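Dear colleague,

Following up on yesterday's call, I've attached the two folding results inline so they're easy to grep. Please treat them as preliminary; we haven't cross-checked anything against experimental data yet. The first protein's sequence and structure tokens come first.
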Amino acid sequence: MNIVERLSKLREIMALKNIDAYMIPSADFHQSEYVGEYFKSREFISGFNGSAGTVIVTKDFAGLWTDGRYFIQAEKQLEGTGIELMKMGTEGYPTTTEFLVNNLAEGSVLGFDGRVISANEGNELTSVLAEKNIKIEYQYDLIDEIWENRPALSDAKAFVLDIEFTGETVGSKLSRVREKMAEKGATYHVMTTLDDIAWLFNMRGGDIAHSPVVLSYTVITSDKVYLFVDETKLPEDLKSIFANENVEILPYNDVYEFVKNIAADEKVLLDGTKLNYAIFNNIVAEKIVDYNPTLFFKACKNETELACTRNAHIKDGVAITKFMYWLKNNVAKGGITEISAQNKVEEFRSQQDKFFDTSFGSISAYKEHAAMMHYSSTPETDVELKAEHLYLLDSGGQYLDGTTDITRTFVLGELNDELKLHFTSVVRGVINLSLAKFLHGCHGYNLDILCRGIMWKMGIDYQCGTGHGIGHVLNVHEAPNGFRWKLVPERFDSAVLEEGMITTNEPGVYIEGSHGIRIENEIVCRKAEKNLYGQFMEFEVITLAPIDLDGINPDLMTKEEKDYLNWYHAQVFEKVGPHLTEEEREWLKEYTRAI
């Protein structure tokens, strides 16, 4: 069936079940940003394959809500489907909740699969729609009824991430979680986020492409832990760790019945933004604390994790530098396309020690394709790179010692003044945020202007955050830290910046139909001096790869900015250079020269 036929079939089933509107989000049962093939219901029903979006279907309307990263992509992918693009955060477009309130009649029925909607969102909908006596049916996965040959749930094997990479035992992590439970007076902690569970148990897996997590749920008490997982995925060394920590292994789907047995007078700790609505409605306990301590523990990397991550970035920098050398020396010969270039950088990464996967699907975008922030080249859109204009590569690696995320925009030929202005402005934004010094207590939104302000002065903006947290051998996007100019509560990525948090620094310029430029480094929040004014903080840059000097107009930069870029490139040459061939090293000397 094509998209139009799928929508028609869905509406037939909705009519049979007396459902007036049906909502299909992007999530899995754990509110993951990226999901396994089994969970791609929104993509199945709409054809839109971006990582974020929600489809709502009624009898005579179908709409896709997504954010500014995907407007250009979504417009193209929705053509001919009858699905209308609803531009989130844009004037004139209602939120999903506003749409439902304004368009559903009194006494209507809204349907969704309660396992893929968060407790907070489900409760908000229940409350708001009750004013119009609108009923919610959350027991139905209607997409499953029309999705022929739906992929099975992943059966990838789990593995232990050794203490040499984590720096902390499972027992120590459980003790810290239980201390927080005691502070909150909680007797149970229900955990559903896959990266939190993976971090807690020093467990990694392969149930989501590029994100080494394991489909599972966890319930923690003062003396017992219950892990809901497909036991066939677990190796003996993991089972041994679980046995030592009194972890009982139960079938994956048993969590729904298990939580029904938590007594009403118990106090339960949970994360309402991540716990799914179906589980929440099975909890009879009346005392709920919406808090997830692991989120903050995981975000503040310990010294072992930081040392490992620095090492991973040297290897990743070697791969990117080799790629840049190869690209610059071969693009004029012809035959390099977006996909073959993407494959080449993956080849260079695969040659590095402890590499086991990419950290997300690479964005390999030439010329105007780079204006789509999350463009993904396909055989239909794949174009050949020429010795002209700009090429953007956003990619990353999963190593046993760290997760990386880096973007470089490469100059393939002569640039006009506008392109050099935009390129230099993006680099200046990266530098200005890297140089930030601030008092402890600042959030990402306090500092975003240091980056974005340069673009705002030109009367342009990039419709996304300036940076996101990143996990340790985990998800490439990790809450709660990030940089953006205004609070977006549902994203929860603007926490106070704490020592050990790793955040990306990636401003950009995106001109539809012309070009896209992004430069991305990862930076670690560290303590600086403490004095009568308080504790000062600063950033340590850990990404190591050249920034293409061919795109920079030094006359547009301040002395401080040029000094920083020269210092940064000296670090790149010192740490990456020894791992290159003699020819590559000589080339790198030129591309890390002082300006």
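Below is the second protein, in the same order (sequence, then structure):
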Amino acid sequence: MADRTDAQTGASAGKPATAGAAMPMRLSGLERLYRQSGLFGWQLKGRQRDSLRPGLQDPWQGNAQRGADIMAYRTAPAASDTAHAGFAWLRDLRAEGGVEARSRARDLITEWIDANQAWRLPDWRPDLMGERLAIIAMNYGWYGDSADEAFQSRLAQTVEMQLRCLAMDWRRMRSIDQQIGALRGLALAEAALGGEGARIEALQDMLFPKLRAAIHDDGGHVSRMPDRHIGLMRQLVEFRMATSLAGIDGSAISDSIVRMGAVARMWRHGDGRLAHFNGGGGVSAGTAEETLLRAGVRGKAVQQAPYSGFLRMGSGRTVVIMDAGDMVRGDTVKSETVTGDADLIAGSGTLGFEMSVGPTQLVVNSGQMMTDQTLRRVMCSTAAHSTLGLDNQNSSSPRDGRFASISGVEVGEAPGGLLAIGSHDGFERSHGILHHRKLYLKTGGSNLRGADHLEYTGAPGEIPNLAVIRFHLHPKVTAAMLANGSVLMKIRGSRVGWTFKADGAVTEIDNSVYFEDGVRQASQQIVLKAVVSDIRTTGSHEIRWAFTRGAQ
């Protein structure tokens, strides 16, 4: 996957890759033909406001080095036509700063206007228009307020035309996230053009039903994807800026941001990064911190997000984050809310967890969405998460109509530490097996003990053969087998090692892969294998394991 900078992702940071062949906008061939005519261009024209006003300030940082490269003509403003159309490069130039950067920004904007006098794709796609209008409006005080009247007038004219087109098209986007992104672009453009408060208020009224569909009551994104969660948070922060400039009440948006921030905090490790559940890993620690800071979210991380389905335990410097939620199902979350094949398999890491110690992550999930559909399936599979799989099958399989349902979820204090438990029936239909997992974190964080219990329910299905539990290790962790069958782990830069031991399974070490910010890294994984072909006779099988700090 191509490396991406935070400046390129901008307000859409964390948005997982969508299939390149899929058209995210509903538009017939006849409609496309009409839009390329002069009649449609005439339809977009109307009253024109003289210029934008500079009252907004972009809350997101650009990449100063990339801005310098653009200034020196060492690189194009963006790597693709789609990225160029989003105008995230404007942030990079702002980060580089200086009078020459302002002039270069105005030149690039003028070039884009010259090339887009008439409607065309991808530049006029609603999600890109929403992002572009937002960035144009929020950065106007830097590049536009000091420009000559001709530039200001021409920019206002193109913003007006895009605003009218976006007002017609935003509902055509298949994803509610993209619809919300378009609405925030409309709100910011209206606010920058000095639109009446009633206009912004009407857009806010359109936003609320979309938000109710996009986030759970506990504040978690319905996709259960940390990256998409952060992307939506950033869009809401921007929308709130439009309400502030227009002088209308944006407290309801603030309430949504606060709830989303609480869930975002529970996903964060000691190094500031978000957990890699369901293809995460595209949001840097800096972007996560910047988002929470601009959102104004403070306070301790919550221990449980019951609707989103995540648990968190923390003691000493050790943090454990567990996926204890149902799979995102296509029949309960319609395609207009969650799009793309990868989204429909989000949740195959059921009862998986991540573990960090201070600024270092120890146990992880592989993470990161891929643009290739096959790779996306792999990154969302059970095997790519630190959890249990059975006979090389995912805990959920939409193709087979098999979806893991969570039950018995609890988290809280236990004698001498904290306990998290949960069960799922993802293998009941295929094998007649329930999976129960218990995680116990000792006070002080020096020991994490787990138990994976497989229970035969008597239901028909395949006779199970091999249960495999994987613990993917962070690239900074090196693992080696000891003579007694346990595993010694060394964390780069730390004097204290960790050991792992298990009972009820054979322990092995294998290679793994880890993705962070679009970069693939080699890593290792601890693999437990247990033959369970006699479980219909014995009724159950339990595998116990433990991570212990400093023990040999």
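For the second protein, one point worth flagging: The radius of gyration is 25 Å.

Best wishes,
A.L.
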